[in-house]
Automatic annotation (TrEMBL):
Keywords: Cell membrane, Hydrolase, Lipid biosynthesis, Lipid metabolism, Membrane, Phospholipid biosynthesis, Phospholipid metabolism, Signal, Transmembrane, Transmembrane helix. This is CDP-diacylglycerol pyrophosphatase. It is a single-pass membrane protein. It comes from Paraburkholderia ginsengiterrae. Belongs to the Cdh family. GO terms for biological process: CDP-diacylglycerol catabolic process; phospholipid biosynthetic process. Pathway: Lipid metabolism; Phospholipid metabolism; CDP-diacylglycerol degradation; phosphatidate from CDP-diacylglycerol: step 1/1. It holds the Pfam family CDH. GO terms for molecular function: CDP-diacylglycerol diphosphatase activity.
Length: 250
């Protein structure tokens, strides 16, 4: 058992590492890539533990990292070098279904807030190339804002696989209900159908949340917009709540 001095030293080392990562992220657009590639993956390979990350899957080639922002926010980060939503690699024939993996990783959000949440109170999000600070693909995994979940509920029974435009959180988005996040319904592929090139995809933002309390039964809502859309922001991160207030509701 660690004595008090050793425990204090260990806690200080963790705090210093977290502070260093925070500073690194503010000045280095490759900070996430360096954490995953230089720390998490080597640790998993050498010791079977994910190091600074929460989880590393060497076979599926992604890591889960607790973000320094928020009580429950986690990030899915590929262990391959993929810059972001604009990368052709996300549309390659045998590309990993990162959205499926990110959705499975919502359990880490629930562990952080120490309670289970309905699927329509959990969300995944990726920013456009012009609304991000990091040049390594990362999908945000966190709680939804309560008012946004309520607004999106009007799409819970939409016929699947059709886009419907709506104003949500003050910005314009198109919304599609899907019954899977894999293969042809992979959100990257859905958005790329009418954003055919790298430049068009670079403008896009995507959010995914449960269409109802059980996504397995109710499906998912894919929320998409672009910088070039009137009242579009190129980001849907403001639809998430990094303070996860829904977890505090009775």
């Amino acid at each position: 058992m660690l004595h008090q001095g050793a425990r204090w030293a260990a806690a200080l080392a963790v705090a210093v590492a977290a502070s260093a990562c925070a500073r690194l992220a503010t000045v280095d657009s490759n900070a996430l890539w360096k954490i995953v590639d230089m720390r998490c993956v080597p640790s998993q390979q050498a010791t079977g533990t994910p190091g600074q990350c929460t989880f590393v899957d060497l076979d599926k080639r992604y890591a889960i990292l607790k973000d320094i922002v928020g009580r429950s926010q986690h990030l899915l980060i590929p262990t391959d070098r993929i810059t972001g939503i604009e990368s052709p690699l996300v549309l390659a024939p045998h590309a990993q279904d990162y959205w499926v993996d990110a959705w499975d990783a919502r359990r880490y959000v629930e562990k952080s807030v120490k309670r289970s949440l309905p699927d329509n109170q959990l969300g995944l999000e990726i920013n456009s190339q012009y609304r991000r600070t990091q040049n390594q693909l990362h999908i945000h995994i966190d709680c939804m804002r309560g008012d946004i979940s309520e607004a999106l509920a009007r799409h819970a029974k939409d016929a699947p696989d059709a886009w419907h435009w709506d104003t949500v959180g003050g910005n314009r988005y198109r919304i599609m209900r899907v019954t899977t996040l894999a293969e042809a319904s992979n959100p990257f592929r859905l958005v790329a159908r009418d954003n055919k090139d790298t430049d068009a995809m670079a403008n896009q933002t995507i959010l995914v949340t449960g269409a109802g309390p059980s996504a397995e039964q109710d499906g998912w809502l894919v929320v998409n917009s672009g910088i070039d859309v009137d009242n579009g922001s190129g980001s849907a991160e403001n639809l998430l709540d990094h303070a996860c207030h829904v977890a505090d509701a009775p």
